[in-house]
Amino acid sequence: MTNHDPLTHQIIGCAMEVHRQLGPGLLEATYEEALCIELKDQEIQFTRQAGVPVFYKGHDLVRIPLCLSASVCRNQTEKCRLSEEPE
Q1: pTM of the prediction?
Q2: Structural domain includes residue 62
Q3: Can you give the residue range of the structural domain that contains 50?
Q4: What's the average model confidence in pLDDT over 30-36?
């Protein structure tokens, strides 16, 4: 089992609570709205629709809907970069 820092643990808990309350099958925007409510209730700072570019083979695909803590986003970005490197 991987140990997460307390903030990451709290964020995952928020996402699980949203899923527990709403269940599967709704539109992404519904879950995003509910997660924002949960994050506010837990006093976790975030930026909605932060405009962080995601590229695939030089094409700008999507924007990440939520940017939580700068350290969490930075850690996830580094993990993505590492996973893209050839083995």
Answers
A1: 0.63
A2: yes
A3: 6-84
A4: 93
